[in-house]
Amino acid sequence: MNDFPHPPERRRLRVLAAxxxxxxxxxxAARAAExxxxxxxxxxxxxxxxxxxxxxxxxxxxxxxSRDARRAADVIGIPFYVWDLAERFREDVVxxxxxxxxxxxxxxxxxxxxxxxxxxxxxxKALALGFDAVCTGHYATVVTREDGSRELHRASDAAKDxxxxxxxxxxxxxxxxxxxxxxxxTTKDEIRAEAERRGLAxxxxxxSHDICFIADGDTQGFLARxxxxxxxxxxxxxxxxxxxxxxxxxxxxGQRKGLRLGIPADDGKPRYVLDISPVDNTVxxxxxxxxxxxxxxxxxxxxxxxxxxxxxxxxAQLRAHGEDVPVTAEVLGGELHVRxxxxxxxxxxxxxxxxxxxxxxxxxxxxxxxDRATARSQEKPPVTV
Length: 385
Fold this sequence. Notes:
Structural class: alpha/beta
Number of strands: 17
Distance between the termini: 39 Å
Radius of gyration: 22 Å
Largest sheet: 6 strands, antiparallel, barrel
């Protein structure tokens, strides 16, 4: 059964509903309340200097979002509070994001926010105040097994599945997680229609996209302001300079657009970012086939239950809404070693690899090194965390 059963099958739960001001979290809170739980809404103030209004569908945590969340709570008929977690968010998510790019890696701030903010800082505070669970609008499913343990699974609707960004949750956090939208086989239009039937004004509000703390969507500009410009060379696989850049942090492995190369490739084919070296501020580009990765090593694994033992076959997801790829994986010396059945392109250190056993999320880890399929790439020192 998904999430917590409706009373009276089990006791009425005290639920803290994280309400971003968007339609998904509002409908999730409404469903939890409708199921008979004692629900309290909370909006997380994550910006030290929130803007008054959103920039279209970008960003979140504005004054407008807080007001939208409060209005939704009023319609649902639940208490509502605003909790200031701006300093914790700045330290655990924003500063980490900048540091990862400065080191030549490509982080996923949504995973870090779920791990450190929504299911660490928020959950810990909720439990301390006597709440039983934290409810969010994520599309994922929690299944309770006969022995009482809980598993994280993909959402019933694969098109909306968000289990990838929840792969950092451990067994303790899953025991107090509630995702009322996870087993819903409906389109987003139907979720909006439900919100409208419930009288929620956020029914037609645009979804937020991109990175929430970069409201204008200009990640490179944000990093330049944070790290400063630093001109460096763009080189090809032979080491010959083919262009310049204003900061290696502005690139990610597999990037094709925005390279502004002054010298075209001999074969006339597009070139892609192959490596980023923050030490000498150099970006290496080359052909698409040089991006083929046959295996990777990942660090800081987090398991959604019992850690796997010995090598086994799984599927892996390497980016949000990315395709599943078949892999063999095992844990050795505290690191996750993953080998792909077929080469995969565009894998960047800093990204998360999430393992699945069918629809069940096994766990996740941060990619540290990759093994390239081409002989030359294998001879090069691996990119490390």
